[in-house]
Each structure stands twice: as C-alpha cells, then as structure tokens.
Design goal:
This protein is mostly beta strands. Helices cover 0% and strands 53% of the residues.
C-alpha cells in the first residue's frame, strides 16, 4: 500500500483500510473504509505544509460509495477532515458523506483549504458504521494543489 498514508484508529472488525486490490480509480491502492458493522476506521496522510504564500490551496479526491442500506436514511458516515498535525485538532470537516450518497462509480470532489495556509496539516478519512447493513467508502487520488504568485506546490 501507499506509505504516505497510515491507519490511525480502528474499532470493531478490522478490515484493510489501505487496500491493494481491484477497485482503485487509478493505480493499485486506495483507502477503503466502512466494510463492517459497528466499526470505526480512520486513515491519515503524512503531514504537509500549506504555504503561507499560497494564493490558492485545493484538496481534491474521488469517492465511490456502495451500500446495502435502504435508501433515504443515514446510517453510515465518512468524514473527510483537515487536521492540525501538531495538535491533532480538527481544523475543518471538508465533507460528510453517507450511505445516502452511494454511487455506481467514482465522483471527483474538490475543496478550498486556503483558510488554513501557513499550517502543517493532515488529511484524515474517518468512518462510522451502524450495526446493521454494510457501506463501503472508497477514496482515491487524494491530492493537494497549492499555488502562489511565484511557486507551484503539488503533493
């Protein structure tokens, strides 16, 4: 699996959260959360600095959500969080997705994180599951793009 990510917490039945199996949007690995009932999982990226000089800072990623839950009611959730790497404080929850957001294929997502320039941050993917049917959250192609007047930064 990609060594720039690490499993940071898991309760309940433990499943591989950094998968090297079919199902990746590109390449051979992706984050796979959920998968089991009454469980929480999280994976975190390595810390990266959003330069203070950045004029634009964007976090992009793609998600695919499959579920056995009935439509219309939220049971299982995926939180995409921007975390301060030194204090472990959540700076922003960029999006909360659920079984209601299920998709047949990957969906590209993009979020402005410029409000956090000058900070060392970690991207944390965290899932919570109820005790009934299973939802699988796949996350792939996570990237940060930071631009300034004089430099371009890419992860």
């Amino acid at each position: 699996p990609d060594t720039s990510w690490s499993r940071t917490a898991a309760t309940g039945t433990l499943h591989l959260t950094l998968a090297a199996e079919s199902g990746a949007l590109s390449g051979t690995t992706f984050a796979k959360l959920g998968v089991s009932n009454s469980a929480t999982h999280s994976v975190s990226s390595k810390a990266t600095l959003i330069p203070a000089t950045a004029t634009t800072s964007t976090l992009t990623f793609s998600t695919q959500i499959t579920t056995a839950e009935a439509p219309g009611t939220v049971y299982d959730r995926l939180f995409v969080e921007l975390v301060d790497s030194s204090t472990n404080t959540v700076l922003a929850t960029l999006v909360t997705l659920s079984n209601v957001n299920s998709t047949a294929s990957y969906v590209s997502r993009s979020y402005n994180v410029n409000a956090h320039k000058g900070k060392n941050v970690v991207v944390r993917l965290r899932s919570t599951m109820d005790s009934s049917l299973v939802t699988t959250f796949r996350v792939d192609n996570v990237a940060a793009r930071m631009l300034s007047d004089t430099n371009r930064y890419f992860l």
